[in-house]
Amino acid sequence: MQAAGLKMGHQPLRRIGVMGGMFDPVHNGHVAVAVAALQALTLDALRLIPCHLPNHRGPAAASVQERLDMLRLAALDDARLIVDDRECLRPRVSYTVETLESLRAECTSAVLVLIVGSDAFAGFTGWHRWQDIFTLANVLVVSRPGVSLELPASLRVEMQQRQVASAEKLCAQPQGGILLLNTLQWDISSTQVREELRLHSGARTLVPAAVANYIRAHGLYAQD
Q: What domain range includes position 33?
């Protein structure tokens, strides 16, 4: 018997991924994570949501409009990638839980999957209302090569209760599950990309070609 609420009119629920970050700039590592999530979970859409004002770090090097522009360029090759500017429109610090609440209000019956890197997930207990996130979305934890998943005790308890073994099991529920994805080979961060762009013009190969052209045209991340 199908669990209540998992299908509407005998049609599978839409699967919507949610991937946030500063995207300063969006780089090939971000694209690799997005593609891996789309394939692993057979997502109908993946919302890329750049943060305007972060809680745990300083402001972005590029403006919010420049980061949106670059993200839209990076998303052009796949119609399932949707750039969502809801956090950019907030005049205050952005919290993931509030973004998920707004998405859940819009997509009441969808399967929502928050996509985070393993390093970010290790600090999950420092996120605003972190436990409420599991009442709003599933979580896909994407590992980075060489990064071991060392979790605080409270998050280990959540893992023991919520971890599932497959994408199908994760997407059999609208929210509340955790799945580890260990297939990613990219080990790159925006900080590294900005530094490489500042020092070496050849580092533009670390970002999508259209984004590299945008960075060059707008003189972003140039050496001081």
A: 12-214
DSSP letters along 37-104, please? HHHHHT-SEEEEEE-SB-SSS---SS-HHHHHHHHHHHTTT-TTEEE--TTTT-SSB--HHHHHHHHH
- How many domains, in total, are found in the chain? 1
| Vertex 132: Cα angle to 130 and 135 (nearest 5) | 135
54-112: pLDDT as tens digits: 877 778 999 999 999 999 999 999 999 999 999 999 888 889 999 999 999 999 999 99
Q: What angle do CA 55, 117, 187 make, to 5 degrees?
A: 115
- Is the pTM here over 0.70, yes or no? yes
End-to-end CA distance of the chain: 63
Q: Assign residue 186 the CATH number of its domain.
A: 3.40.50.620
Could you check whether the bond before residue 174 is cis, i.e. omega within 30 degrees of 0?
A: no
pLDDT, one tens digit per residue, over 129-153 is 999 999 999 999 998 766 677 899 9
N residues, the chain: 224
